[in-house]
Amino acid sequence: MKKNAADQVIPAQPLPEDKLEDDTPLPDLPPLPADPRWRIEHLPFLTAFSIALMICAASVGFFADGGPAAVGAAAGVAIVTVSFTMSTLVLAWADTVRPALLMPLGLMTYVVKYSLLGVILAFVISSEWPGRLAMGWGVVAGVLGWTAVQIWWVARTSLSK
To answer: What keywords appear on the UniProt entry (predicted)?
Structure first.
């Protein structure tokens, strides 16, 4: 029972019978793949590549400008590795749970990770840390390397099928 402004009791109106049950059929959803691991099967290889790239970037940074540059270059590659891995895991999870979640979760993931990247880079650039330039080059190397290896992986797996 509801009350109106004059505190009079108003009886609740029953719902019509056709509103109680909706017999509209649900849409047919495509079946999920038998083995959802294909969404992340490239991650171990890309992680190994990223570790090798971190070691190479740290070596180049060390020989170019010493210890802080080595740390900066390795940190730049690590930032990209974490960022790309996070996107892959979120999108793979969303695709296994409900494919309709791909777009909103993907966009949310990109907003979060690029916001964090912007904050990190703004903080590093405004500091006087000697490894900041090497960190920027590490980010560039990480993006180019990860993207190239992922393209190679997709091309290799799609040609073998």
So the answer is: Membrane, Transmembrane, Transmembrane helix
Residues 6+ apart with CB under 8 A from 142: 50, 53, 57, 76, 77, 78, 79, 80, 81
Domain with 46 in it: 41-159
Residue-wise pLDDT for 116-160, tens only, equals 989 988 999 899 999 999 999 999 999 999 999 999 988 888 777
Total domains in the chain come to: 1
Q: Are the C-beta atoms of 79 and 142 separated by less than 8 Å? A: yes
**Residue 19 included in any domain:** no
In a domain, 120, yes or no: yes
Closest to 30 (Cα-Cα) out of 123, 77, 100? 100
CA neighbor of 39 nearest in space, from 93, 92, 101:
92
Distance CA(135)–CA(126), nearest Å, equals: 13
pLDDT digits (tens, 9 = 90+) for 6-60: 566 666 666 665 555 666 776 776 666 666 677 888 899 999 999 999 999 999 9
What pTM did the predictor assign? 0.74
Sequence-ordered alpha helix ranges (H) in 12-131: 17-20, 43-65, 67-97, 102-126
